Amino acid sequence: MATGIQPQPGILDIALYVGGASQLDGQSNVLKLSSNENPLGASPAAVQAFARAAHDLHRYPSTDHAELRAAIADIWAVDAARVVCGVGSGEILKLLGEAYAGPGAEVVFTEHGFSMYPIYAHACGATPVIVPERDRVVDVDAILAACTDRTRLIYLANPANPSGTMIPEAEVARLAAGLPPQALLVLDGAYAEYVADFDAGRALVEARENVVMTRTFSKIYGLGGMRVGWAYGPQPVIDVLNRLRGPFNLSAPALAAAEAAMRDTAHTERCRVENARWRDWLAAGLAELGVPSDPSSANFILARFADTAEAQACDAYLRSQGIIVRQVAGYGLPHCLRITVGDESACRRVVHAVGQFKGSR
Ligand code: PMP
After folding, report:
1. Residues 120, 94 contacting (CB under 8 angstroms)
2. Are residues 235 and 327 in the same domain?
3. In terms of domains, do 29 and 115 share one?
4. Structure confidence by residue, pLDDT tens digits, 274-311
5. What keywords is this UniProt entry annotated with (predicted)?
6. What is the total count of domains within the chain?
7. Atom of ligand 1 nearest to the CA of 161
8. Cβ distance 324 to 34 under 8 Å?
9. CB-CB contact of 192 with 229 (8 Å)
10. Which domain holds residue 186?
11. The model's pTM
């Protein structure tokens, strides 16, 4: 049926997001390693805070998120006035597109960048600009070369998803310093807490006016189901995001759980140490089986197979064994599988299954 009602240009170019819930939900003994969730779960203090919040479900939540921002400021030594909280970091990344890009603007990200970046660019009507990487590592010179007088946003995850690779802080600083004056650098630190002694761009935000850092509670804090993220940026950028976001964007239980999770630094540290230990074990075990991966700084590894056919066959075999990993063909990496670092038994199960797969060929 012909209709005059059409969405904004670009929206029909958006491919639907694939891969949230496990396709084997309901089956027993399924191991879901496809969404980079924390195998140790949330802090018990966060679970308790969530339960306590249930007593006041008839009340609207805080609009200014003051208590959560104070916790973030205490733990990360940032200025609470320049923190904004969102429905996952995804909401903030999207709002940055709406606020700073739009029709005629260019939004830059790298070839294997997070799959939502092109969606955020299309959603605001901007033109996505895809920059090549060097062996699955972000290339700052290539980004700088791609910038024009229409570049408004650069999305950059460090560590990157799905490669797990990182670029040094000095390289990020060189990028920020070399950008055209109208361009805002968005440093996506979704996996930052997995890197010891890493500020993920905090110092750069303090020193410059063209950098904003986003963070999430979905990964190391184990709160993917709560949908909480935050950003730290220059005051004018934070003021803009506060105007755009919904006044009650975060639910009271989500705010309570996130605040408790942020303050339970012992749990966060335990998750970081366990992840590093089993990530390195998993990567070494798969490498011995002839499945290498890039050095990962995150809570997943990008396992590389001989070719697309082998990656697909291995994915199918793992699935037959109840193990769900992520195909990353949509990221331009059809010969790879992204595998979340689970706990010890999960990692052992993956190495065992890949060993059986390799042995059967
Ligand atoms: N950035 C990157 C690089 C991610 O991998 C993710 C989650 N997969 C996000 C942002 C968004 O996470 P959330 O909205 O759960 O905070």
Report:
1. yes
2. no
3. no
4. 999 999 999 999 999 999 999 999 999 999 999 999 99
5. Amino-acid biosynthesis, Aminotransferase, Histidine biosynthesis, Pyridoxal phosphate, Transferase
6. 2
7. 3
8. yes
9. no
10. 44-264
11. 0.95
